[in-house]
Specification:
- This is Metallo-beta-lactamase superfamily protein.
- By secondary structure, this protein is α/β, with parallel strands linked by helices.
- It folds into 2 domains: 314 residues, Metallo-beta-lactamase, Chain A (4-Layer Sandwich); 126 residues, no CATH class.
- The protein has 16 helices and 15 strands.
- An 8-stranded mixed sheet has the order 6-5-4-3-2-1-15-14. A 7-stranded mixed sheet has the order 7-8-9-10-11-12-13.
Length: 508
């Protein structure tokens, strides 16, 4: 293209739709006031009906004038693809797609991908069925009766029910709602691939790829940092020491983890003095969370009294299902770490926009192993330098502790004009996620680095402190006071907050 016909990008409008906890983000690239290119990154939230989501999708279609040049799907979780399923007719009829970008792990034509997805489908089905059975068990009268008369019965029952809710929430991220379809791709992902991208081939991207010379994106290069390519990295949720942020120290009473309950029992000497799974009653019955009648004497075990119908309530059939939590967490980290990660660079200014999907530590760590000189001959560029130049960061994994790396991630984003955007919304969120979202350490770091230029999808009911006394909005305003008057006015003018979305304009 002749130099005099090029239209270098001067600004980008980044719009986050308020569907609920999940990503649905559009980008409009502008040359002056002219929109030359558009992009949609994901379309999802953790749950929602067609009636509720359609208003967001209608506005999205209207704002994009019925066409998006690039549809980007980062990974196969409902909070990133559910909108495609719920609003299929609206999107298929109202939004044309120029091309679709996905990670290499979505290339169904590759034998290794097919093999992996078959195995993964079996795990999705197992998790979904375990979640259903666990939910049924802990909500049953039999299970509640099992705890009657024991110490901390209400607390234990609340814990198990919350535990079941959390496992169900993880299962819902991965599995379709119809039991017969658990093993296949999520309906939203299938619709995106087969219906929205039906007129062209999809682009499957891998780490080290660089996209450039894209029509409508003059002066723009896009670096692909993820999804990663080795299992050891895929399976890595967090780093050690100062590499990653720690989980919130204090949890709400009904939202502590299984390990936390065990720790509390051990600290109070309950765990070791209560349950003897050989069949004997614990020596200190007064401290047992189960009554003595919950255990059969060894002498009668041969008679299998628990097989009697009127004694069925004494069994703890759900114990084996607790392993479903381990499966859920491993599957969640695996899928998150397979997120397509894009760093969008504006060549003249060097500014970069970072969109990491829900990448966890293993993905962040792998970015630093990419040899960019292999795809950019003569370049001395490193991933650290990419992060140094980030001026916009879409916060990974809704402000949870495992979504943003510390020393090899956020602490490298040192541009003084950094803006962050987080897709967290307590109006629509999975049960149990509020204990990890927002992670207070990441939230504090973001507010400090952005001087309050941190946009959260919905700040209602969000608190800065663990004691839930300081509203996040108050702390955002406090940090914004660190900006000069001109900086604050420039930032305020760049943000549009609507009932359906919040939008920020980044000058590049």
């Amino acid at each position: 293209m002749p130099e005099d016909s090029k239209k270098p990008i001067t600004s980008v409008k980044i719009r986050m739709y308020k569907m609920g906890t999940g990503d649905c983000i559009s980008l409009k690239f502008l040359h002056g006031t002219e929109a030359t290119y558009s992009m949609l990154i994901d379309c999802g939230c953790i749950h929602g009906s067609q009636d509720r989501l359609s208003k967001f999708v209608k506005e999205l279609i209207r704002d994009l004038d019925g066409h998006v040049d690039a549809l980007v799907v980062t990974h196969e979780h409902q909070d990133h693809v559910l909108g495609f399923q719920r609003c299929e007719d609206l999107l298929v009829e109202g939004l044309s797609v120029g091309e679709m970008w996905m990670g290499w792990t979505e290339d169904d034509g590759k034998a290794k991908v097919k093999e992996w997805k078959t195995e993964y489908g079996q795990k999705k089905m197992a998790l979904a069925r375990a979640a259903e059975q666990l939910e049924s068990e802990v909500r049953s009268d039999r299970f509640a009766k099992q705890l009657d008369g024991t110490q901390a019965a209400d607390e234990l029952l609340a814990f198990y029910q919350n535990f079941a809710d959390a496992v169900r929430g993880f299962a819902a991220l991965h599995a379709n709602e119809e039991p017969e379809n658990y093993k296949g791709p999520l309906a939203g992902m299938r619709i995106a691939k087969q219906e929205l991208a039906r007129d062209h081939e999809n682009s499957y991207l891998k780490p080290g790829d660089i996209l450039y010379d894209i029509q409508g994106l003059d002066g723009v290069r896009i670096y692909v940092l993820g999804p990663l390519q080795t299992y050891e990295q895929v399976d890595k949720e967090s780093g050690e020491g100062d590499e990653a942020y720690r989980h919130n120290k204090k949890l709400d009473p009904d939202e502590f983890s299984l390990n936390e309950l065990r720790r509390r029992l051990q600290d109070s000497d309950l765990f070791t003095r209560t349950i003897n799974f050989s069949g004997d009653v614990a020596s200190d019955a007064a401290l047992s969370p189960f009554s003595p009648s919950s255990f059969a004497p060894r002498s009668v075990l041969k008679k299998s009294p628990y097989e009697k119908e009127d004694e069925a309530w004494r069994r703890i059939d759900a114990e084996w299902l607790q392993s479903s939590a381990s499966l859920a967490l491993r599957m969640n980290s695996l899928t998150n770490n397979l997120s397509l990660v894009l760093a969008i660079e504006f060549e003249e200014s060097g500014k970069i926009l970072l969109f990491p999907g829900d990448a966890e530590f293993g993905s962040w760590e792998s970015w630093h192993t990419i040899d960019w000189s292999r795809t950019e001959p003569g370049s001395e560029l490193t991933t650290e330098e990419i992060l140094n130049r980030v001026v916009f960061y879409k916060v990974a994994h809704h402000l949870s502790h495992n979504g943003t790396a510390r020393s090899i991630g956020l602490e490298m984003m040192n541009d003084p004009n950094l803006v962050a955007m987080a897709t967290l919304n307590y109006e629509v969120i999975s049960s149990g996620w509020t204990s990890t979202m927002p992670n207070r350490a990441i939230l504090k770091e973001l507010l400090e680095r952005t001087k309050g230029r941190t946009i959260i999808q919905n700040t209602d009911d969000l608190f800065f402190d663990l004691d839930l006394t300081i509203p996040v909005v108050d702390k955002i305003e406090e940090y914004q006071e660190e900006m000069t008057d001109d900086e604050r006015q420039l930032y305020t003018d760049s943000v549009v907050d609507d009932d359906l979305y919040v939008e920020v304009t980044i000058n590049v």
